[in-house]
Write a structure and sequence with these properties.
573 residues; alpha/beta; 8-stranded antiparallel β-sheet; 6-stranded mixed β-sheet; 20 helices
């Protein structure tokens, strides 16, 4: 059956809701739009599924959500009655239709006699992860498209440990999903099933979450001395972070000035181009407020509040948006410093970062005598390390981070937590203020100590039904292309993460990486710099990461441009 036939079948099906019928009728005769919507199925991978909101098999809508949840329900039923009784906790953010999709998922679970705990208002990713662990559910569902543009939504599944579902379990769920051909045929629960199986998440779960976070504070004396006078601006960028971030800051004694216009749950995110706090433009309203009131720091979180963006005043007194790597090394340095000062740094302390995150983390961890572990992109791999070490006690997890503004201290959650990151960054500001220093000054001290590292990533968008296939083909092509040099830097080692092998360029010797498989090529350069190329797992973009080490910022900037040009030539070849 071709895409046109599937389109007509949907349009003629009496079970299609009025909104869907009107929307599909509006594209009648537009072959390109029909092919995009029905020429493929929305892919469900290890990060769940994410797509443009609309009707069709390749779109995010109530029917693709119900189909995915039906597959999850079949998986849970294979685990037995106890797993069904433990149930699934469901949360959602402020995006268009997030609440509708969350309710639809709960109803599918109820129709399958599986308990569904549903939050009665928006809650961020870290609170969903915490709720899975606190309520001992068998799984969790988060309806969100994270930092994507407004026309996207998504669906992420979490395992019983609170981390995103493992690749092994995801494969089983996907197999169940693929068996479901009738998108519009998900069972509806009876009134009795709704009453019996759909439950509100108890309010005590939120209270327990905040209590766990307050245990993670590191500088109570500095916060007590400086917190009441700290001028900090926070914007939730219309997302789910507003209540939790302001609540935890208030609990530790810090009052934030919020960007009122951006506390509104605006599904179109009308005050920003994209709701991604990695970009300075997204923080612009916060920066303007900070200038008006004389604040020194600006925080911003994305719609599901798992990413934190930070802007601080630089040496010239102008606001500078820090990269995720810069915030990561500041938090890493701060956490290890405070733990060491308090005599609380475990002898087997360990830090985990994704392998595309700044190479500077290695030098900082070495200075503190802390083990550093690298994992593939995706916070679930950091969660796997936490889970492993809780079992074998070989290491004690102290911090994990990714360059994409994702950070986690503590083991209360198993995903990025912008709420705890906001708390730590706020008290870090207090700590350095207490010591007559700014955060920016500390960042410069770190560069003076370890050498300057310039981290940057670029994204190359791909379009069309074959976007994901085309991106992967580019990466596959690099695996068979000999590379010994990127302009001024020699390549020492090439890692092929899809085959779990690394090759010494000089000798040709091959050895295992010892990492989960993922489609990625990583070039280790002679001075500790690296270049990495991988397809995004959540959107049609080829991502290229650069970490360039040099004596000074100017040298690093020159080297970065040379690296970019060399990579561009390689990809075109």
């Amino acid at each position: 059956m071709n895409y046109s036939d599937i389109y007509n079948n949907w349009l003629q099906d009496a079970r299609l809701n009025a909104e869907g019928k009107n929307e599909l009728e509006s594209i009648s005769g537009d072959n390109e739009k029909i092919e995009y919507r029905f020429g493929a199925e929305l892919e469900f991978g290890t990060a769940g599924m994410r797509g443009i909101i609309g009707y069709g098999t390749n779109m995010m809508n109530v029917y693709t959500v119900k189909r995915a949840t039906s597959g999850l329900a079949e998986f849970i039923k294979t685990l037995g009655a106890e797993a069904m009784a433990r149930g699934v906790v469901i949360s959602y953010d402020t995006r268009l239709k997030s609440d509708e999709f969350a309710r639809a998922a709960a109803e599918v679970l109820a129709a399958n006699n599986i308990k569904a705990y549903l939050f009665d208002d928006v809650h961020p990713v870290p609170m969903l992860s915490f709720a899975v662990r606190n309520l001992h559910t068998i799984a969790g569902i988060m309806v969100t498209a994270s930092h994507n543009p407004k026309d996207y939504n998504g669906y992420k599944v979490y395992g019983e440990d609170g981390a995103q579902m493992s690749p092994e379990d995801t494969d089983v769920v996907v197999n169940f999903i693929k068996k479901i051909d009738d998108y519009l045929g998900a069972p509806a629960p009876t009134a009795e099933q709704v009453k019996k199986y759909i439950k509100k998440v108890p309010s005590k779960v939120d209270k327990k979450y905040y209590k766990e976070l307050t245990k993670l504070t590191l500088s109570k004396r500095a916060v007590k001395a400086c917190g009441k006078d700290l001028k900090l601006v926070y914007t939730p960028v219309h997302g789910s972070g507003y209540i939790p971030v302001t609540t935890i800051l208030k609990k530790i004694g810090i009052k934030a000035d919020v960007v009122r216009e951006q506390t509104v749950k605006d599904t179109s995110f009308s005050t920003v181009e994209v709701p991604n706090p990695e970009f300075k433009e997204t923080l612009s309203m916060g920066i303007n407020l900070a200038k008006r009131i004389g604040a020194t720091v600006v925080f911003g979180t994305d719609p599901d509040s798992d990413r934190l963006g930070v802007a601080v005043k630089n040496g010239e007194g102008e606001f500078e948006a820090l990269s995720g790597n810069q915030v990561g090394i500041l938090l890493l340095d701060y956490i290890l410093t405070r733990l060491k000062e308090e005599g609380a740094l475990p002898s087997n302390a360990a830090v985990v970062k994704s392998f595309v995150t700044t190479g500077m983390a290695k030098a900082i961890c070495r200075q503190f005598g802390v083990e550093l572990f690298e994992v593939p992109v995706g916070f679930k791999f950091i969660g796997e390390k936490i889970k492993l070490w809780e079992k074998d006690h070989n290491y004690t997890y102290v911090f994990g981070f990714e360059e994409s503004c994702g950070y986690l201290r503590g083991t209360h959650a198993r995903d990025k937590d912008a709420v705890v990151a906001s708390m730590l960054c706020a008290e870090m500001v207090c700590y350095y203020t207490y010591h007559n220093k700014t955060v920016y000054q500390r960042l410069m001290e770190i560069y003076d100590t370890y050498g300057y590292v310039l981290d940057c990533n670029i994204s190359i968008p791909f379009k069309g039904l074959n976007a994901m296939k085309d991106m992967n083909a580019v990466v596959d092509g690099l695996k068979t292309t000999p590379v010994t040099k990127f302009d001024i830097y020699d390549v020492t080692t090439i890692r092929d993460y899809s085959a779990d092998k690394k090759t010494d360029v000089a000798t040709g010797a091959v050895s295992p990486i010892g990492s989960p498989l993922t489609n990625c090529v990583y070039y280790e350069l002679e001075n500790g710099s690296f270049i990495c190329v991988r397809p995004s797992g959540t959107e049609p973009k080829l991502k290229i990461y650069f970490s360039v080490k040099a004596h000074h910022k100017a040298d690093a900037e020159i080297a970065l441009e040379k690296m970019k040009a060399a990579v561009q030539q390689l990809i075109k070849a």
